Amino acid sequence: MTLQVHMKSSFLPEEISAIAELERVCNAAEQIEIKAGVESLPQRPTEGIWDILCYSEEKLIGYLCFYTFDGFVAEVISMVHPKHRRRGVFRAMLNTALAELRRCGIQQVLYVVPAPSQSGLGLMKHLGTEFHEAEYSMHWAREPQAFARNPHLHLSAAGPEDFEFLVRCASQAFEDPEEITRNMLHRTNTPDRTSYLALHEGTPVGMLRVQRIGTDHAAVFCFAVLPEQQGHGYGRQILTQCVELLRQEGRTQIELEVVTENERGLHLYTTSGFDILSAYRYYKKPL
After folding, report:
1. Which of 2, 65, 132, 218 is most open to solvent, judged by the fewest CB atoms within 10 Å of its CB?
2. What is the CATH topology of the domain spanning 139-280?
């Protein structure tokens, strides 16, 4: 089988349709939800993100996307048509990706695998990766459970003067080096993303970020409370106030991405009105 591997920075409509169909086939084969981000392809940014297409006899049989938010770590998502697996398709795409990542100075690769995917788990074992963390994609589905609100806690859009707090808060909450966090915040400082401070009596205690998509869609991410401020019930109120803000804007499609070590940690989010859409496991390997 002859493979043609192409790295892409922009897409024709028929290419996007082919990727969407490949995603549908792969999801149906294993009853999973691959996080390929097909809906964002028409307006995909050109910096820090790459896409690779693999064809056989003019048919798309493989897709791989890799991207970096901080310039140090790259995330890799891929899918191969079920009828063309174990034929070197993934390896051909990965070799192309790794060569580009080395050229860009990336130090570590995170492979993103849908939690139920047995083929993905087997591939991670074959590659010799190490489990890193689990991420849950959730969506807002209902009003939150009632709770006592703190009248002194509110959200405020962050300004340039708040940047170092955002770095410190995210770095401490997610246990990442400040250099990596600072680079990530710089790279993702785009017009469609807004950072918010959670202020208690005027003192910042937490943060979250929102990406507004279209007129009715929003994604909430980088939700964090300073470690020394955790345990006071701030998290639920911060998240609830964020949802209320977005709903006032007419946004009804609200998604949330969270990282947690166990499902008990999801209680905060489910009681805030969110349901789990999908779960992903991240596996790491030095480059």
Report:
1. 2
2. Aminopeptidase (3.40.630)
93 by DSSP, 3-state: which?
A: helix
Contact (Cβ atoms closer than 8 angstroms) between residue 70 and residue 108: no
Q: Where are the beta strands (DSSP E) in the chain?
A: 4-8, 49-56, 59-68, 73-80, 108-114, 130-140, 153-157, 193-200, 203-213, 217-225, 253-259, 274-286
What are phi and psi for residue 191, nearest 5 degrees? -60, -25
- Which CATH architecture does the domain made up of 4-128 adopt? 3-Layer(aba) Sandwich (3.40)
Which is it for the CA torsion 22, 42, 278, 287, positive or negative?
positive
Q: Which two tokens stand for residue 189?
A: 């400082």
Question: Residues 31, 114: contact at Cβ < 8 Å?
Answer: no
Spatial neighbors of 148 by CB under 8 A, at least 6 apart, are 233
SS (HEC) of 14-78 = HHHHHHHHHHHHHHHHHCCCCCCCHHHHHHCCCCCEEEEEEEECCEEEEEEEEEECCCCEEEEEE
Q: What is the C-alpha separation between 276 and 278, in angstroms, rounded? A: 6
Using alpha carbons only, what angle is made at residue 56 by residues 51 and 61, rounded to the nearest 5 degrees?
50
> Which sequence spans correspond to the domains of the chain?
4-128, 139-280
Q: What is the pTM of this model?
A: 0.78
